[in-house]
Amino acid sequence: MKLLSYRSSDRCSWGALVEGEVLDLAAVNPAWPSLATALDAAGTDGIRRAVTAAADSADRIALDSAELLPVVPHPGKVLCVGLNYEEHRIETGRERTEHPVIFTRFPDTFVGHGAPLVRPAESERFDFEGELALVIGRGGRRIAPKDALDHVAGVTCLNDGSIRDFQFHTHQFTPGKNFPATGSMGPWLVTLDEVADPAELELTTRLNGAEVQRAPLSDLTYSLPEIVSYCSSWTQLRPGDVIATGTPGGIGARREPPLWMRPGDVCEVEVSGVGLLRNPVVAET
User: Fold this and answer.
1) β strands within the chain, DSSP E
2) Burial (0-12, 13-18, 19+ Cβ within 10 Å), 121
3) pLDDT per residue over 160-182, tens digit each?
C-alpha cells in the first residue's frame, strides 16, 4: 500500500495510490484529517480496510494533478542518524561511535516530490544526502530491537539537503540541517508489509542524471531495528514521527573538487521497491 499527502484545489489531504490514482481518505473519514492521525487511530491495518471499503465509491484524482507534500507534512519529530554508513564515516574522517549519532530537523525544512529545494542566500555549499526514512506507525518507549519494526508503518525516500558551512560552524549539526525547504521527503510511504526485507533495499542518489551515491541498506552501521530501539530509549516515539537512517558515501563536500547542488540542477533519491523522489534546485529569492 502506498500512502501520500497532497494538495489539490487549494485543499490539503492525504490518500492511497490506487490504480494510478489518488483515493482521498480524508474525505472518506473526516476523523482522520492526516496520515499521522490515521496511523494513530487505526494503524496501517485500519487504513487498508478503509481503502478496500472505499475503493469503488470514494473520490479519486489523477496523480499528476496533485501537488505532493512531504509524506508526513507536520511530523512531531524528525530524527536523523548521521554517519551511519561506514564509507560515509570514513570520508568525513570521524571516529566510529558506540551509539548512533542523532540530530533533528524541523518540519518546515522539507518539501514534497517535485517541489523545489531552495539554496539559501547565505551559502553556496548546498549538498545532497540521499536516505531511506522510516515513518512510525505505532508509538512506544524503550522498544526492544526484536519488536522495533512492528512500530514502523512504512518507508519513504528522503533528501537530507545540507548547508555544509553552517553545519560545521561547530560540532552541532543543527544550523546546517534546518534552513527552510532544503530537504525533501516522498513521493509516498510504502507500508512495511510490502517490503520483504528492508536490508535488501538499495539507495541511489543522482544529480542531473549522474549517479553520485549508491549503497544497499545492508551497509548500515546501525540496522533499522537498532535505530528505532535506540531512539525510543530516550524519547517517546509517536505515530507520524520520521527517522532518517543515514546517507552513504559520495557526498559533494568530500569530493575533489566539491560538488554542490546549484540552481537549475535536479536531484533524485531512489530506493528500490519504494519510489523515486525528484526535486529541482532553485536560489532563494
Assistant:
1) 2-8, 11-18, 21-24, 60-62, 67-68, 78-82, 101-104, 110-111, 117-119, 126-127, 130-136, 152-159, 162-163, 183-191, 202-207, 210-216, 242-244, 266-271, 275-283
2) exposed
3) 999 999 999 998 899 999 999 99
Nearest residue to 47 via CA among 112, 2, 102 = 2
| Angle in degrees, CA 7, 8, 9, rounded to 5 | 130
State which H helix or E strand residue 108 sits in.
none
The total of other beta-carbon atoms located within 10 Å of residue 122's CB is 12
Compute the distance between CA of residue 153 and CA of residue 276 in angstroms, rounded to an integer. 19
Grid coordinates of 63 = 496523480
Rounded to an integer, what distance in angstroms lies between the CA atom of residue 152 and that of residue 72?
14
Place of cell 520483504: 196
The answer to whether 249 touches 204, Cβ cutoff 8 Å, is no
Report the alpha-carbon angle 272-68-167, nearest 5.
75
- Please indicate, yes or no, whether the overall pTM of this predicted structure exceeds 0.85: yes
* Contact indicator for 243, 79 with CB cutoff of 8 Å: yes
Q: Are 129 and 161 in contact (CB under 8 A)?
A: yes
Please state, in angstroms and rounded to a whole number, the distance separating the CA atoms of residues 108 and 58: 31
Cell 551559502: give the residue. Answer: 123
Q: What confidence tier does 252 reach under pLDDT thresholds 50, 70, 90?
A: very high
CA gap 71, 273 in Å, rounded: 17
Q: Which domains does the chain have, with CATH numbers?
A: 2-68 (no CATH), 78-283 (3.90.850.10)
